[in-house]
Design a protein that fits this description.
By secondary structure, this protein is an alpha/beta fold. The protein contains 11 helices and 10 strands. The chain binds ligand 9RB and zinc ion.
């Protein structure tokens, strides 16, 4: 058993510019600062993977930039043309919604982020490694066919899955997104496709607005192949593990994919500035274990994680390395005892409200969970 790992220094060079969080800074009451999606949390994750000694036990995978052809399996020619045009501009541009800025030449880094996900997925499908983590940037799960959004330029996971499917006809894939935001982009790309089951666990009503309801189930031949589990603000380890057990595990067992891809954000963590959830690093570790056991049962352990959001520079590295440790079976514990006290907090425990939300998702997805 071995674990693949992707990181490239250029991911840290994706330039979201000076921004007061979500808004451009100005000289009135909005002091310029960084964009929320700055390199910090992800570079520090990569750094801790090295310093903890974990990285030397992983199989390093080298990303290559993806081609236009790869991108066009999932995006419109207009979207790609826009990214090319804005990427060539001296100061770069935006991927479509005004909150997804990138610097001059930024399309090359976005191609490399998709390429990182491709490298991880291909390595797992080719049997070079059992599972893999692609620590990539910019993120991808909000990018729709016709536009980037929510800090995403290209659908990293979607493009990698579509490419793998083009080379391996009949390949069946589950995407199981645990980023705190709805994985709307991945869902929209496979909306009418029964060969990719998209699942998203997310904070109800967070981002995008009016997105990720249990009633969104796919259409046409894809009807029933999108599953949404909106969870109430405040959900922690207990609620997330309950959602996995009640909805995800039975849905994936029924679907029997060849590989499971996890768009993995750590913005559902208890320290995240953009989410209002309470998952701890050990919670992410436990979720990883559940998904590994599920992958063992249905697809010989084939599991690929590709990085999305997560904005706490101090906590994302701890979540990330905990997940890598679980994936690889290399025993590193990077959690300070003080942080462990968060696992005992009331918000980490399953509540009746969370139970009801999960039950509603289970009914909508028509899966049988354990009572
Ligand atoms: C817009 C706004 C955003 C955009 C992206 C995120 C997080 C993304 C992520 C959060 C809020 C607002 C376009 C507010 O981490 N995904 O995984 N907000 N965007 N107002 N308007 C007009
Ligand atoms: Zn997110």
């Amino acid at each position: 058993m071995s674990t693949g790992y992707v990181w490239h220094e250029l991911y840290g060079w994706h330039d979201t510019g000076s921004n007061a969080g979500l808004l451009p800074g100005d000289a009135s009451l909005n002091q310029p600062y960084f964009h929320f999606e700055s390199p910090e949390s992800k570079q520090r994750f990569a750094s801790l993977a090295e310093v903890s000694g974990l990285a030397e036990h992983l199989v390093r995978l080298n990303p290559e930039p993806v081609s236009d052809e790869d991108i066009l399996r999932c995006h419109t020619p207009e979207h790609l043309a826009r990214l090319k045009r804005e990427s060539e501009a001296p100061r770069g541009g935006d991927a479509g919604d005004g909150t997804s800025p990138f610097g001059h030449g930024g399309l090359e880094i976005a191609r490399l982020a998709v390429g990182g996900t491709v490298a991880a997925l291909d390595a797992v499908l080719d049997g070079l490694v059992t599972n893999a983590y692609a620590l990539v940037r910019p993120p991808g799960h909000h990018a729709r066919p016709e536009t980037g959004m929510g800090f995403c330029m290209l659908g990293n996971a979607a493009i990698a899955v579509a490419r793998a499917r083009s080379m391996r006809p009949g390949l069946r894939v589950v995407t199981m997104d645990w980023d705190v935001h709805h994985g709307n982009g991945t869902q929209s790309i496979f909306w009418e496709d029964p060969d990719v089951l998209t699942i998203s666990l997310h904070q109800d009503g967070l981002f995008p607005a009016n997105s990720g309801h249990v009633t969104e189930r796919g259409e046409g031949r894809g009807e029933g192949y999108a599953i949404n589990v909106p969870l109430p603000a405040g959900t922690g380890n207990g609620g997330y593990l309950h959602a996995l057990e009640q909805v995800v595990v039975p849905a994936v067992r029924r679907y029997r994919p060849d590989v499971i891809v996890i768009p993995s954000g750590f913005d559902a963590s208890c320290f995240d500035p953009l989410g209002r959830m309470a998952v701890t690093a050990d919670g992410f570790r436990a979720m990883t274990r559940v998904m590994m056991e599920l992958a063992d049962d249905v697809c010989e352990g084939r599991l690929v994680l590709t990085h999305e959001g997560g904005y706490s520079p101090v906590y994302v590295p701890l979540c990330g390395v905990s997940v890598l440790s679980e994936l690889s079976g290399v025993d590193v514990d990077v959690i300070h005892p003080l942080y462990r006290t968060f696992d005992e907090k009331p918000e980490c425990q399953l509540t009746d409200g969370q139970r009801a939300a999960v039950a509603a998702a289970r009914v909508a997805a028509d899966v049988e969970g354990k009572e």
